[in-house]
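Re: that backbone. C-alpha cells:
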C-alpha cells in the first residue's frame, strides 16, 4: 500500500479507527494520523505492515463468507444499530457485510453482532463487497438534481442511472446492485420519500431499479400494527424473478398500547421526569402555536395510548413522546430500554452508548417485527429457495 488513499480506503473498508491501526502496529495514534494527512511521507515499514494487515483482514472476510450457513446471505447497508439485520437473521439469513459510518451506532452494532461494520459506503469499491443473495438498507433520502443531469448531458455524457443518481447515497445502493445483481433487495425509507422533490426523487429511484432488471414493488406500512408507535415507512422490494412479483404480507394489527412496553408505574429513575422549567417551556411553546392555529404540540400519552413516531431528535426535549405520570407530577421521557421495546427490538439487544446517543440510534432505526414479516415473506420467494446461493 503506497498511497494515502489506499491506506484510508482499507481502514474504511474494515471500519478501523486510527486507534485500531495504532494498537495493531504498536505505534502512536498521532503517527497514523500524520501519515494519512500526508504531513509525513509513508515510511516503507508502515507500507509493508499495512499490506500485511490488509491481506489478513481479506483472508478473514473470505473465511467468514465461505463459512456462511443459513438459508440465504445478505448485506446490510446504512446499517445503523442493525434493526434490519436483527429481522433478517431471525428468518435464517446470514450477514456477509455491513456498512455504517457513524461511530455510535457502529459501536452498538459491533457490541450486538460481534462485527465492526465498514465505514463510508461512498468510499467502498463494490468489488470489495462479497456476492450476496439479498441487499438491505435504509438509505438517507436526498434530491436528484435535474440541472446536474442536463449539464452532464450537454457535455456529451450518456444519460443513465450514473448521471441521474451521482452524488446521492442512492447512487451507492444502485452501483452495488448493478455489480452484484442480488436476487432480491429491501430498501426502507421515510414515507415522504414518495413526495420528496415533488415526486421526482421516487420516480428516479423506481426507474433506476427497474432499469437494473428488477421487478419492484413498494408499500407504506405503519409500525403501529405491531408496536404501540405510529410509524409509517415506505418499503421497496425488488426481485429478479419477473414470474413471481413480490407480494407484501397482510399484517394483522396486534393493537398494542404503551402499557405493553413501559416499565411498571413508579419504577423509573426520576432523571427521566421533565424539570419544571422544561415542562413549562414546552407548554408555552405549544400554546403559542395553538393560538396561531398550528398543529405543533407535545405528544403527552397515557399508558393505554399509542406513541407518535420516535425521531432521531428525541434526545433534545423528548416532546414527541411524553408519558403522563398523574396530575401531581411532570411527565417523563421514555428510557432507552423502553425505546428499544417501542421499536420491537428483542430483550437481549444490548444498549452500549449513552442515553443521548441511544435515543438517536433508536429514532433512526426500524420497527423490527415489521421488517421481520417482510423478511419472512421474502425468504419464502422461489428465487431465494432454488438452492443456488450466491457466494464467491
Ligand atoms: C435511517 S438510518 C438506518 C438505520 C438502520 N436501518 C437500523 O435499523 O438501525 C441511516 C444510517 O445511514 C448511516 N449513513 C449515512 N451516510 C452513510 C455513508 N455514507 N456510509 C455509511 N453509513 C451512512 C447513518 O449514520 C445512519 O445510521
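Recovered sequence:
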Amino acid at each position: 500500500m503506497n498511497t494515502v488513499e489506499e491506506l484510508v480506503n482499507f481502514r474504511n473498508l474494515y471500519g478501523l479507527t486510527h486507534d485500531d491501526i495504532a494498537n495493531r502496529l504498536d505505534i502512536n495514534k498521532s503517527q497514523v494520523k500524520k501519515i494519512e494527512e500526508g504531513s509525513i511521507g509513508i515510511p516503507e515499514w508502515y507500507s509493508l505492515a499495512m499490506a500485511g494487515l490488509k491481506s489478513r483482514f481479506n483472508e478473514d472476510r473470505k473465511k467468514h463468507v465461505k463459512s456462511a450457513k443459513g438459508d440465504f446471505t445478505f448485506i446490510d447497508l446504512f446499517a445503523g444499530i442493525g434493526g434490519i439485520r436483527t429481522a433478517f437473521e431471525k428468518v435464517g439469513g446470514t450477514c456477509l457485510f455491513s456498512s455504517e459510518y457513524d461511530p455510535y451506532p457502529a459501536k452498538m452494532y459491533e457490541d450486538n453482532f460481534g462485527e465492526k461494520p465498514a465505514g463510508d459506503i461512498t468510499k467502498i469499491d463494490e468489488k470489495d463487497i462479497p456476492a450476496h443473495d439479498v441487499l438491505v438498507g435504509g438509505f438517507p433520502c436526498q434530491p436528484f438534481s435535474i440541472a446536474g443531469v442536463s449539464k452532464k448531458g450537454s457535455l456529451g455524457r450518456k444519460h443513465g442511472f450514473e448521471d441521474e443518481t451521482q452524488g446521492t447515497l442512492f447512487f451507492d445502493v444502485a452501483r452495488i446492485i448493478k455489480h452484484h445483481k442480488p436476487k432480491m433487495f429491501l430498501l426502507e425509507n421515510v414515507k415522504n420519500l414518495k413526495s420528496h422533490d415533488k415526486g421526482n426523487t421516487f420516480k428516479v429511484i423506481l426507474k433506476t431499479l427497474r432499469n437494473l432488471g428488477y421487478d419492484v414493488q413498494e408499500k407504506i406500512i405503519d409500525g403501529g400494527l405491531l408496536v404501540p408507535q405510529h410509524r409509517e415507512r415506505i418499503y421497496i422490494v425488488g426481485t429478479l424473478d419477473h414470474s413471481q412479483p413480490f407480494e407484501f404480507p397482510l399484517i394483522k394489527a396486534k393493537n398494542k398500547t404503551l402499557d405493553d412496553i413501559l416499565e411498571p408505574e413508579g419504577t423509573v429513575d426520576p432523571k427521566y421526569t421533565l424539570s419544571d422549567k422544561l415542562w413549562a417551556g414546552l407548554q408555552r411553546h405549544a400554546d403559542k402555536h395553538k393560538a396561531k392555529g398550528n398543529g405543533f404540540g407535545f405528544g403527552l400519552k397515557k399508558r393505554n395510548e399509542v406513541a407518535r413516531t420516535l425521531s432521531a431528535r428525541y434526545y433534545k426535549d423528548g416532546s414527541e413522546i411524553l408519558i403522563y405520570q398523574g396530575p401531581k407530577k411532570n411527565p417523563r421521557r421514555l428510557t432507552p430500554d423502553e425505546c428499544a421495546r417501542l421499536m420491537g427490538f428483542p430483550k437481549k439487544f444490548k444498549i452500549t452508548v449513552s442515553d443521548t446517543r441511544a435515543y438517536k440510534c433508536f429514532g433512526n432505526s426500524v420497527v423490527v417485527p415489521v421488517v421481520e414479516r417482510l423478511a419472512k415473506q421474502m425468504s419464502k420467494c422461489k428465487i431465494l429457495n432454488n438452492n443456488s446461493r450466491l457466494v464467491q
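Residues 147-156 have pLDDT under 50 and may be disordered. The CA atoms of residues 344 and 369 lie 6 Å apart.
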